[in-house]
Amino acid sequence: MTKRTYRIAVAGAGNVGTFVATDLHKQGHDVVVIEQDKTVVEALAKELDVNWVTGDACELHTLDEAVLSSCDVMVAATGDDEDNLVISLLAKQEFAVPRVVARVNHPDNAWLFNEGWGIDVAVSTPQLLTALVEEAVSTGDLVKLLNLEQGKVSLLEVRLDEGSPAEGHTVGDLEIPPDCALVAVIRDRHVIVPKAETPLRTGDEVLALASPQAEDDLRAALTGER
Predict the structure, then answer these.
(1) What is the DSSP string of 75-93?
(2) Pick from 37, 47, 86, 97: most CB atoms within 10 A?
(3) Which CATH class is domain 138-223?
(4) Kindly report the CA angle at 131 between 110 and 101, in degrees rounded to 5?
(5) Would you say 63 and 34 are in contact if contact means Cβ atoms under 8 Å apart?
(6) Does the structure show a pLDDT above 60 at 136?
């Protein structure tokens, strides 16, 4: 089966934008990079064989030159949160780009990166790193790894501690709240797709998708705490 390819625009040719563009290009996608610094474009164009547009991605004429209306995804990856918000809004409202992904540089601004600004997915590196550190050191605590759908759904993880109310029970025994689904159990480095008869043991890493309203009930079911 042939892998589907997409046309993807990346705004900002800093370290983050260049890495994203390079990786997407290697995967066979049609990538266009927008960067306002002509010197940066001239230097990187020699190494990265993608479409380049020199200009300010906050300007309509620049996005028009990049033929943004033909893109499946817009990635606002500049080092300025205000620019990323403007780029995202223009991409969604003026060019009807189906999926807009935006980089959050300062965690205090994360609350702004929502569907009101045309953003489908917001990525905050500091928050992601914090979540990964918590995941690495926490046992018996529910850790939020990633927000999806503008925070309406979260990917959560818990490593079952000894004495967990889930220990020794099957997935079907648990009182899983509405708006929540267990998506994987990781045991001895193996991924188990949870079914009603799947037993849970101390040390299991349980991954779940849940709405904010369901998190407390999910925590209670897996850790015994609220």
Answers:
(1) EE--S-HHHHHHHHHHHHH
(2) 97
(3) alpha beta
(4) 40
(5) yes
(6) no
pLDDT at 152 over 90: no
Rounded to two decimals, the pTM is: 0.68
Side chain identity at residue 193, one-letter code: V
Quote the pLDDT of residue 156: 84
C-alpha distances (whole Å) from 12 to each of 16, 104, 154, 187, 188 are 8, 13, 28, 40, 41
DSSP sequence for 10-48 = EE--SHHHHHHHHHHHHTT-EEEEEES-HHHHHHHTTT-
The reply to whether CATH 2.60.40.10 applies to domain 7-124 is no
Comparing CA positions, the residue from 102, 145, 81 lying closest to residue 9 is 102
Every domain range in the chain assigned CATH 3.30.70.1450: 138-223
Q: What confidence tens digit (pLDDT) does each residue in 25-78 have? A: 998 999 999 999 999 999 999 999 999 999 999 999 999 999 999 999 999 999
CA 57 to chain centre: 22
Q: Which two tokens stand for residue 58?
A: 């906050």
Tokens found for residue 187 = 């045991």
**Strand 143-148 to 153-159 pairing:** antiparallel
CA-angle at 189, arms to 161 and 129, nearest 5°:
70
The single-letter DSSP state of residue 176 is: P
Percentage of the chain surpassing pLDDT 70? Answer: 91
Residues of the chain with CATH 3.40.50.720: 7-124
